[in-house]
Amino acid sequence: MDPRLFQPLWDLVGIRGWNSYTVFEFLTLFLAYPLVYLVTRHIVIERWKMFLNLSLMFYAGICGSKLFHILFDEQLSRFLDVIRTAGFLEFLRQEFLYPWKGGQVFYGGILTAMAAGTLFGWFLFRKDRKLNILRTYDIIVFVFYEISAVGRIGCFLQGCCYGAISDTFGLVFPGRSAAASGLYRDGLLESSALATPPLIPTQLIEVCTSGSILIFLLVKLPKAKQLWTGYYAWHALMFHAIARFCIEFLRIDRRGGLWLFSTSQWIAITVATVLIIIRIRMLRSNRPLVKGGVQGV
């Protein structure tokens, strides 16, 4: 639980380096490409177009996750102050030219990446557009849950996305961590320099849930030709919606919400509802679910 975990390495090579959160964020990018190469050996798609789409989706997703953080994590007033003092162009440069600095919403990344993938896919795939866009969804969910499983380790080391105080199932985060700063800001800690009381490590819970989703997808991957197009995306997004809805009850960090639920819970409810409607329409459709990677919706 140390944001400066890699600092001895940076000192050794004589560079400024990145904090732990940023290291794991970029690690997910480097792991994404070999993972997509593996997946596209089973899900048929033009690989170079998928790699290009992946690169565009990655940047769109991280910008989208930053935008959701600004709009829905009770951070809007702080960013408006930045705009008033530094100007709108400087705000865009700071937050969207380098959006990986911290402060993201995972669901924002998923939704904007899928929207971007749809848009880019429309231009990239001149033939069988709908089929290839659906296959893109099937492929990209492997990356989503690799990002979540690995990236949440960075959250844990940074101390963000923390859970409620718990003496039975809690871990202590050090002073100056994001958790300590958050508890101090909310009046639950006398100083941000102090260690936190035991907090539920919701970051590690999400590492486990996202890792389990990724393992499920990989186990099912060799059977891709026997499964309907959209199978991987449907199941991964549904499993994650259920898991994320439950995990949110354990968190106490500032992240915005409405009525009884957090922003992520409302998104999870919406995603699950849309997926159920899609599945019902598929089952009621007169069109057969053709296997072997052929369009099923």
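Next protein, fold it too.
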Amino acid sequence: MTSIPELDAVSAKRPPVRVPLRGNVPATPRLLRLLDTAPIQRLRGIRQMGQADLVYPGAVHTRFEHSLGTYDLMRRMVAQLLESGGGPPLPAADIRCLLVAALCHDVGHYPFSHTLEGIAPLPRHEERTRRILLQDRDLVAVLKRDWSVDPERVAAIVDDTGPLAAPGDLRLRELMTGPLNPDRLDYLERDSHHAGVPYGRAIDGERLMGAIAFAPDGVRVGVTSKGVSAVETLIFASYLMYRELYWHHTVRAAQAMVRRAVTEALQLHELDLEELADLDDGSALARMRTCPNTATADLLARVAGPGRRLFRRVWSGSLQAAADSGNAFLARVAAADYWGQVAACTEACRCMRAPDHALLVDVAGQGKELFFEVPVLDGTGRTTADPEVSLLATSLSANFDRQAKRVQVLAPPERLADFRRHLGLEVGA
């Protein structure tokens, strides 16, 4: 079908890379050379779920493992699309771009996973990925020499906010970032597996993969009618994983503390933004421990010290409940960006004569939408009027907004009662 050795089920010349949940991933020489580049090797030191191991001890897997899993799912997805036909054929050059994009999609991630996102002026990790793909000499050399791909094309596929690098690449971007992308399919199952919860493992991945096909427009990726229930398992798994795992109140409290520790060091110019972005978790933590300010030191000691002394909830409730509460502080932080929330907390701390970092706000889900629009195809490849997938997605999306998106006001346990009185807050839901 194509001249892509990575699509072979077995590599005869080299032993496979063994990846949890994916099994044996064929290891071609050029795949190994790509894996050995510094940007991808750095991902060995970045945990996929940040501080989640403070609640789920098994959640210590890395973005390196996830990147390999995403690559293998893209490999399988491409093979299925080649077999199912429909839409313009995928030429070898496009397939190579897709495989590279899947493996490299997280090279721009900051340390501590998603914890630091939202701290302006930190660019989105996809923007950093774009820059690394275009500027890292060794990575660029491997992409051009071994894979015969244009780094500009790969960067445009991974970062879906910028212009496309080549005509017709919209469907490659759809495969990498659309509703049925291999990144999402892998992290939901992998995170569920390592955390020891069932939600992401309920996805019917085999049936979904076997039902994938291009929609009549040749751009969007849909499923045949036999894949509708599999898509529904994906939608429901996404909802439960965010509500019960990614946005678990204790995980979010630890992330808020690390975020504020970094914020304090950045504001005092004790930490350089570019330096921090290039570190992994361990080296970033070690570097932050050299910062002399007491706020960073106290927060890190509580999160990553000899004992676990996390902040607890002064108040918690849905984002909508905070906005509609009639409480001036809650309404303010629910509408504010990260720096506005820091300012509100600092003002409250100074009124209480408490350290500026003694009150934190964490908003889970601000700007996040649970959105799936997946075409359902009939036996001839045409889009049907089947509403099942979109109806379930609409219902869960509404519930996602009402219940999963939450505000937490956090403080050290010994200050909870004082802050509740000062802010006029009850304990909340």
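About the second fold: Residues 5-196 form a domain with the Hypothetical protein af1432 fold (CATH 1.10.3210.10).
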